[in-house]
Design brief:
This protein is mainly α. The chain contains 15 helices and no strands. 66% of the residues lie in helices and 0% in strands. The chain has a domain of 96 residues: Serine Threonine Protein Phosphatase 5, Tetratricopeptide repeat (Alpha Horseshoe). 32% of the residues are buried. Helix 4 packs antiparallel against helix 5.
Length: 319
């Protein structure tokens, strides 16, 4: 697959670069470039990011960072079974519990919220840092909602992190999830308060808290671009009803020609009138008439090493 011209492979994190040093240099550089493309496209074009991740996976399936990247690309495209396979492989390679929350969310995606809840109570959660524990709490609350336990979802989100005035990268999402859970149980006034609190800290537009808040207040947003398109269409309709410059010129020319023809006819009639007067007696005498009427007118080879233990094979790449 083509690599953007500005991609060198040096953009990846130092720890990932360290992992790739186990590979031959040329191969490591190639894999690094594909990982950069995955990171670059995963938000804007997840399907393309997924495709790049599969190439990287064929080239270096025994590198934990590659398995993790493949997992996130699969997760972004809702291929939850593949994502779970890759995350499990990466976790076995590193021994880290960092991927535990997203693995639990994959269980939700596969329609197994009860397993996600089991993972939320597992010892691995204690190994997570604060951000990881908040992620785990969000997943657990989502699992409660999946199971119809709406009140329990609200309680799950009520935590010291929610009450904290400190703003962290996860603060907006936590407040938003709590507001949404409150709305689900009919506590609209409380939900409005927490949507407003989410808006206060959501500087990057991570959530649609502003839109949800406006909806609760009865405010409807209008898409300015859509409105401009409608105005343009109306203008085209009006323009279609009016003659164009070319059409106007045709009308003017036609009128001028008609006027000229009428003038010629008058001159002809005058001449005919003189002749008629001269021959009138003769014409009348012959019983004829002097006026006769006239009619008008849509490159890489497969890695021979398959990771059967992780459930990965070349047949996966054709999915």
């Amino acid at each position: 697959m083509p690599i953007d011209e500005d991609v060198t492979g040096q953009e990846i994190d130092a720890d990932v670069r360290q992992e790739l040093m186990t590979l031959p240099k040329t191969l490591a550089d190639d894999v690094a470039k594909h990982l950069v493309m995955v990171a670059r496209l995963i938000d804007s074009d997840p399907e393309q990011a997924y495709a790049y991740s599969r190439v990287a996976l064929r080239l270096a399936s025994r590198v934990a960072a590659v398995r993790e990247a493949a997992g996130f690309a699969s997760y972004a495209t809702e291929r939850y079974s593949e994502a779970l396979t890759e995350f499990r492989a990466a976790r076995r390679m590193t021994g880290s519990a960092d991927l535990w929350p997203v693995m639990a969310d994959c269980e939700r995606g596969l329609g197994r919220p009860e397993r996600a809840l089991e993972m939320a109570g597992a010892p691995e959660v204690k190994q997570l840092d604060k951000a990881g524990q908040v992620e785990m709490r969000l997943v657990a609350a989502g699992a409660r909602k999946d199971m119809g336990q709406l009140e329990a979802a609200v309680v799950t989100l009520e935590s010291p992190e929610l009450a904290s005035h400190s703003v962290q990268p996860w603060t907006a999402r936590l407040r938003y999830a709590y507001a949404d859970a409150l709305l689900e149980v009919g506590r609209e006034a409380d939900a409005r308060e927490w949507f407003a609190k989410a808006v206060e800290v959501d500087q990057n537009g991570t959530t649609d808290a502003a839109e949800r808040l406006a909806k609760l207040d009865g405010i409807e947003f209008v898409d300015a671009l859509e409105e401009d398109d409608e105005d343009a269409d109306d203008a085209d309709d009006i323009a279609g009803d009016l003659p164009s410059d070319a059409a106007e010129a045709e009308v003017v020319n036609a009128e001028a020609e008609a006027a000229a023809d009428a003038e010629d006819d008058e001159d002809a009639d005058d001449e005919a009138g003189i002749g008629n007067a001269l021959d009138l007696d003769e014409a009348n005498a012959e019983g004829g008439s002097l006026f006769d009427g006239g009619d008008g007118e849509d490159y890489y080879e497969d890695d021979e090493e398959e990771d059967e233990e992780e459930g990965y094979s070349r047949s996966d790449d054709r999915r």
